[in-house]
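Let us practice reading a record.
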Amino acid sequence: MNTNNNINGEINLKKWLTLIIIASGAAVIYALPYIRETFYIPFQNAFHFNNVQLGVLSACFSGIATIAYFVGGFVADRFSVRKLLTFSLFSVGISGLYFATFPSYTICKMLFVFWGITTVLTYWPAQIKAIRNLGKSEEQGRLFGISEAIRGVVATVTTFGMLAVFTKLGGNVKGLQGVIIGYSILAIVIGILSWILIKDTPRRKGDSLKSIITDTKKIMKMPTVWLVCALIFCVYSLYGLISYLPPYITNVYKGSVQLGVSLGGSRYIIQIIGGIIGGFTADKIGSRAKVIFIGFFGVILSYAAFIVLPVSASLVTYVIVNFAFGTLVVYIMRSIYFALIDEAGVEIAITGAVAGLASAIGYTPDLFMFTMIGSWLDKNPGKTGYNMMFMYGIGVCVVGIILAAIMMKITKKKIKVSTI
């Protein structure tokens, strides 16, 4: 009896250690492609790039990533997930060390294209498949939820750690070089740990074009797969709107710049809490779609409150509380939306392909939403422009409620059939 308990304990320990490594990798591997988000001005000064050039670098990464999400799914199903994740982290780490030598603009464009491949095509779908493989169907919610929480913790610690490194080295070119080297070494270390801890997932037999076409046809014929794609699109749209809330409080309610920065930073803490709540609640209820369904109603309440609350400095506290509530609900939904793949009845062997398709479609708000909302805010100053944004968010929620209700109905029917 004790021997069995010890074995089970060791298996559980390895499972959670593996989840920590996978989530840590997801937090670190994107630090260099998105380094401008924290170190925009130092990045410009060190490389002597203007705003347009930085924009082009981002476009190089995003352009490749958009295609790579879908293609990467088939790669994850046909190659060793352990090797893919290790290769990706090592590739980013080693190329990052070269990036720290401040190469030319042309070389930087090539690096960002390369990172679009190594952080998406060979990494993202494989990472989702690796998490799914860690537990049974009834554990998927907490696995993805806790993964999101761990990712938030690691992102918080590494961001503030690298800020300390940047300051310690003088807060200039030398400081940025230290940050890039630091992130690169972290990626390599996590790559080594990934090789040691991650267990390979079942792979799809056959790597021919015919097998890929067969898988594609199979996926395209599954209504639940399209529902997963659409639900991720809706939740990801709401996630994108969060970045506008701190400046909304600063610009409309005249909060201080420091308050706006603090609210932006609080997202990491809310991400951690949301991940834990989302994961365990979904598994307790037994339906990830139901949690997301309820979540859309929560976001509608939050955005409706933003619209009806009058502009008054005395209401800033209420606006901040509403920000925290709405953001928490979005992070609860976001933490489990890839766990919908299991609920959709997708077999593990084609998880990568479905995750790739869901990412390619689900993340399309990046291609149009920020430009659209930016235009609204520029043409409609003050609360009016933001109210248009909130109405858009409410519209997305209404669509999401319908989609989640359909998903719940389909999965409920499948459960009934399987129990007959």
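A brief commentary: Residues 174 and 269 are 30 Å apart (CA to CA).
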